[in-house]
Amino acid sequence: MKIYQSTDQSNQLNKIISRSNLPTEQVEKVVKEIIQDVKENGDLAVSNYTKKFDGTELMNFEVSEEEFEQAFQETNQNVIDALLVAKENIERFHIKQKLTGYKIEETDQFIQQIVRPIQTVGLYIPGGKAAYPSTVLMNAIPAIIAGVKDVIMITPPNKEGKINNSLLVAAKISGVNRVFKVGGAQGVAALAYGTSQIPKVDKIVGPGNMYVATAKRLVSGIVGIDMIAGPTEVVIVADETANPRFIAADLMAQAEHDEMASSVVLTNSLSLAEQIQSEISMLIDEQPKKVIIEKAFDQYGAIILTDKMDDAIEIVNKMAPEHVEVMTENPIEMAEKITNAGAIFIGEYTPESVGDYYAGTNHTLPTSGTARFASSLSVLDFLKKTSVVYFSKQSLSKAKETIETLANEEGLYAHARSVSIRFEEGN
């Protein structure tokens, strides 16, 4: 992993600091064609794309109860127990996010906000290069807590037409209603428009590759979506007190996701930067995904030297990364200065993996700088708010002049008339 000065204006460093998840024109063209095909031809199109992209021919997409039972039988009990612990922690954190409505009453009028769950939600769970049962929990549990009636999950099948056992176990544990063996842009389109087998949903959530992210963006408005997620990323803020071996391990943990993953260190210590490089060279050979890690480091990895730690914080807030780890002498104080981040992990014994699997906070997070305005997935993503207004004739009489004045000012004369007509003689 290369060391840069923060003042470096190279194209490579700019690519790392300012990267976005916008698709290429070719990706968007392909996805538009897939969506239109699924919209017009339903299950037949889904089946054709499943054969083309996943290498398996399926006519029935839904996972059966027998397949769920087999998944439990074939999954190590230690994995099931770990998923149950993670579920408990996720529930403990997310239950606090539930909203209640409110009502403001006067003698003859009231205004109110009602909070209700979205009725049907589709979860997209990746299943191509790797299967992530923890992501099932992170997406399904907030929806269940919110009160979503129908939670539908889609995930790509393998070449044998099967779903990874741990994904099915996680789906059943978390309360998913139905699971379908469908992935990619065709799966997103099926959820958005519905087919004879796959129900149309009200909102689609969950991470995926560039084709999935592009499909979600293109169907947004037909259905709701959570966010447009890009490749994963971590930024580690560290000073001379940090442990370079821990940092090297955490950088590799992020980079092993895929070749597009971004792993960055910001530090004011050249000595630490060089030690991190040394530790990476010693640790990387033991990594089963060494090739992926090396490619990710080459494309989106960097150790950036700053003059002061405050400069490092300034760069973090500019990047607005998915994950930030703070390993400094006063990590809590330093973390308080970070305003743009999906999630912050404080201290040398809080690796990002704690958030992925145990802490209970959500690991579906904004990427590619969108933490400037977006938040992690939460119960709020599965709730909608409705306003309710009641005015008596007496209340409307008090408001009449104000409403008519503003409506006439805006040239909306029928708005004003809709009030005044109610006070004509005989009404």
UniProtKB/TrEMBL annotation:
Q: What InterPro entries does the database record attribute to this sequence?
A: Ald_DH/histidinol_DH (IPR016161), Histidinol_DH_CS (IPR001692), Histidinol_DH_monofunct (IPR022695), Hstdl_DH (IPR012131)
**UniProt keyword list:** Amino-acid biosynthesis, Histidine biosynthesis, Metal-binding, NAD, Oxidoreductase, Zinc
Annotated NAD(+) binding lies at Y124, Q186, N209
Specify the pathway. Answer: Amino-acid biosynthesis; L-histidine biosynthesis; L-histidine from 5-phospho-alpha-D-ribose 1-diphosphate: step 9/9
Catalytically driven reaction(s): L-histidinol + 2 NAD(+) + H2O = L-histidine + 2 NADH + 3 H(+)
Q: Which GO cellular component terms, listed alphabetically, does the Swiss-Prot or TrEMBL entry include?
A: cytosol
Question: Record-annotated residues binding Zn(2+)?
Answer: Q254, H257, D356, H415
Q: Which CDD domains match?
A: Histidinol_dh
The entry's substrate-binding residues are: T232, Q254, H257, H323, D356, E410, H415
Q: Which cofactor does it need?
A: Zn(2+)
GO terms of biological process kind: L-histidine biosynthetic process
Cofactor binding: number and manner: Binds 1 zinc ion per subunit.
Q: What is this enzyme's EC?
A: 1.1.1.23
Could you confirm whether the keyword DNA-binding appears in this record? Answer: no
Q: Write out the GO MF terms.
A: histidinol dehydrogenase activity; NAD binding; zinc ion binding
Which family does the entry's similarity section mention? Belongs to the histidinol dehydrogenase family.
Q: What does this protein do?
A: Catalyzes the sequential NAD-dependent oxidations of L-histidinol to L-histidinaldehyde and then to L-histidine.
Q: What is this protein called?
A: Histidinol dehydrogenase
Species of the source:
Gottfriedia endophytica
